[in-house]
Amino acid sequence: MLPRPEPVDAQVAAATFSAHLDELWKPGGIAHTHGWARFDVDPLSTIVTMRAERADGTKEHYFVRLGAVYYDAWPPTVAFVEPDKWMQGHVASRWWPQITLPPWLGMHLHHELGGRPGQLVCFTFTAEYYMTGHSPNAEAVWKQGVHTVAATLARLQEALRQPYYQKPSA
Questions:
Q1: Is residue 118 very low, low, confident or very high in pLDDT (cuts 50, 70, 90)?
Q2: Which of 78, 82, 118, 145 shows a CA-CA span of 20 to 30 A to 63?
Q3: Collapsing DSSP states into helix, strand and coil, what is residue 77?
Q4: CATH number of the domain located at residue range(s) 10-168 in this protein
Q5: Mean pLDDT across the stretch 98-124?
Q6: Sequence ranges of the domains in the chain
């Protein structure tokens, strides 16, 4: 089992996180390709608006809060948030997607993380994955200097497309 993520130097994390996000938002970059939008909350967190598409072509959007407390020694933290205060929802709502889970993803509205309940968007490119006692194979583990927030967002976008995405949970 891998060690739990520990916070890294906040200034280094903020600078690295910002540089990696800025790279994604360059003209012609992956953010533009997928139609993502970004709102920086503070130096260690950002909100990314991501599009989802149902099988019938209906499109919805979700807000994903990414946190850099552990970045980039570990992946960013990830949570689907509600737009009023950018806080995690704790009940099924318009802002929590219903997804037919691929084998690499787990999603829980209520999970015990560090002594407090919260969302768990669980795959190897989220910090929370490493807080839950998983033992991934070596090929799937986050590798500092190799993986960036781009890998996290690309995997989330995959889950918000067909054949996985269904609709909002309520």
A1: confident
A2: 145
A3: strand
A4: 3.10.110.10
A5: 88
A6: 10-168
